[in-house]
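Anyone have tokens for Heme-binding protein? Sequence:
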Amino acid sequence: MQTKPVLGAAEAHRILEAARTEAERNGWAVAIAVVDDGGHPLAFARLDGAAPISAYIAQEKARTAALGRRETKAYEEMINGGRTAFLSAPLCATLEGGVPVVVDAVVVGAVGVSGVKSDQDAQVASAGAKSVAA
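Reply: yep, here.
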């Protein structure tokens, strides 16, 4: 039998708070979603001023990063590189801003952020992911 690390409530909230701190430090109104390795929600926050649609997009970015075991930026680059058939893939968020949370070389979940430029979303998500992975 194999064993693996699993995100608990304490880790999910640590990720959320680290991401929130990064967003607030930069004055960015974003939505932040934390999911487990199956893409199921663990923690969520929509900061003041974040557009309602960002809540949905953040959750989908997190789910896509968790299930795909990679940053959502990889999918965006694939499509921009000409692999447009990937637009029909069942994953909904092929935009940068979803980052997997990796512990002991295992993807244990992901963080999705939406609300600002895609590289800024990724910066906030990475800050959250690094808070547990470090």
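The longest helix spans residues 9-26.
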